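Re: [ENG-882] Designed sequences occasionally contain unexpected residues at chain ends

Forwarding the minimal case from QA. Structure tokens:
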């Protein structure tokens, strides 16, 4: 059985060290054998550390949920095996209903610490340490290498007031103590204290908490290559009595939706581009309940790629993407902050074929890719309705042969065909079999 011990090394970290020693003066070599730290194992042979390897027994498989409940405070490190699949790995975190905890995820040398949650900008909000509403947790913390504190904002004042946590522990947990290091290991996985402590500092910009009770927070890690396969999850819990639950889902191709090109207004426009989004989740225990929405909700991350590498409109100025010619998604800093009707929807949108035919069934089975509008009460125009080229209804269409119509921009989307007169008024309707 492995035993815990205190050793010193001659490098910046265990992975890069040359040798292990039993004294801080680096004069006495540690015995030859196998050593591990933070999910890495290395063999010391003849006083020299050999190549670093991932510790298979230290890894948690993706798709697993982990729970921690401690009377002490701590820094909790886990290594997760994502496998060889390419895609977006989505991580979900619930930090209990009182104490905020920090999240920092590292993959392939890059740290990820930006999180959103269900209902963000809608039924709840995310606020930083000063109580200011922010678009996502960690927005003031990018590029720092620091964790982002999420959960309930109930004890955020205490978190900031007690910082830095730098007292040497002397018995029962005190909120000014240095947190102890823990590493997740074993089967079943358990956090094991390492007997070492670190000073922790928390500042307002690291905070992104819910003022209405903690939600499940969502973080996306893009995995664009088959290797490396290991992601490191750090939970920073400097306040005593922490509770946290998290899960790391295996990489997937993100669900997609079709919308217009980016635009500065909510004006109705045709959907021409495929985008992607990450669903949020609910619950207080793992596995969390993943949402099933087929288009982005307010509070969802949105991306231009299936792996979640590039956020849509990752700027502080709101921009819009129009879904199905009817719904305007307001996106700012990569997250959906509003959703509503696009401007000028007094006329109803529908889609039509690009061409016409003299046969009443000549366009049945064709794609409907052209966005048009009508003033009728139904989903599609009926006899007597007027068809327009824009939502404002200022310009009517002018075709005399049959043109296919359908409710969506899809292949084989024709439901009805119609003819119109010179004023754009529907004269005849034929329903495709």
């Amino acid at each position: 059985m492995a035993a815990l011990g205190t050793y010193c090394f001659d490098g910046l970290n265990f992975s890069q060290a040359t040798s292990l020693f039993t004294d801080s003066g680096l004069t006495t070599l540690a015995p030859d054998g196998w050593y591990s730290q933070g999910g890495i194992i290395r063999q010391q042979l003849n006083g020299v550390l050999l190549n670093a390897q991932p510790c298979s027994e230290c890894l948690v498989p993706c798709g697993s949920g982990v729970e921690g409940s401690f009377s002490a405070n701590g820094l909790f490190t886990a290594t997760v095996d994502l496998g060889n699949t390419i895609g977006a790995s989505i991580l979900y975190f619930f930090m209990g209903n009182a104490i905020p905890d920090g999240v920092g995820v590292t993959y392939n040398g890059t740290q990820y610490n930006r999180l959103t949650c269900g209902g963000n900008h809608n039924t709840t909000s995310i606020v930083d340490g000063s109580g200011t509403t922010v678009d996502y947790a960690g927005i003031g913390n990018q590029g720092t290498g620091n964790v982002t504190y999420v959960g309930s904002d109930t004890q955020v004042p205490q978190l900031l007031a007690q910082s830095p946590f730098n007292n040497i522990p002397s018995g029962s947990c005190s909120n000014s103590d240095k947190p102890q290091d823990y590493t997740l290991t074993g089967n079943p996985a358990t956090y094991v204290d390492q007997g070492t402590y670190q000073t922790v500092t928390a500042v307002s910009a690291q905070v992104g908490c819910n003022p209405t009770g903690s939600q499940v927070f969502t973080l996306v890690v893009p995995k664009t290559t088959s290797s490396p396969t290991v992601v490191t999850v750090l939970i920073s819990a400097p306040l005593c009595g922490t509770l946290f639950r998290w899960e790391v889902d295996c990489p997937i191709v993100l669900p997609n939706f079709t919308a217009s090109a980016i635009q500065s207004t909510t004006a109705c426009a045709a959907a021409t581009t495929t985008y992607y989004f990450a669903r949020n989740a609910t619950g207080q225990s793992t596995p969390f309940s993943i949402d099933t929405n087929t288009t982005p909700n307010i509070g969802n991350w949105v991306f231009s790629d299936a792996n979640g590498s590039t956020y849509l409109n990752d700027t502080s100025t709101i921009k819009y993407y129009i879904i199905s010619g009817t719904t305007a998604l307001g996106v700012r800093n990569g997250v959906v902050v509003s959703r509503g009707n696009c401007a000028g929807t007094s006329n109803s949108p529908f889609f039509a074929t690009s061409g016409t035919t003299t046969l009443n069934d000549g366009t049945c089975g064709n794609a409907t890719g052209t966005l048009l509008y009508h003033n009728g009460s139904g989903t599609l125009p009926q006899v007597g309705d007027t068809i327009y080229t824009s939502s404002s209804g200022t310009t009517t269409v002018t075709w005399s042969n049959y043109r296919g119509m359908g409710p969506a921009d899809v292949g084989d989307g024709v439901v009805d065909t119609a003819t119109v007169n010179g004023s754009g008024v529907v004269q005849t309707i034929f329903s495709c079999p």
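QA comment: On inspection the terminal residues look reasonable. The longest strand covers residues 348-357. Proposing we downgrade this to a documentation issue.
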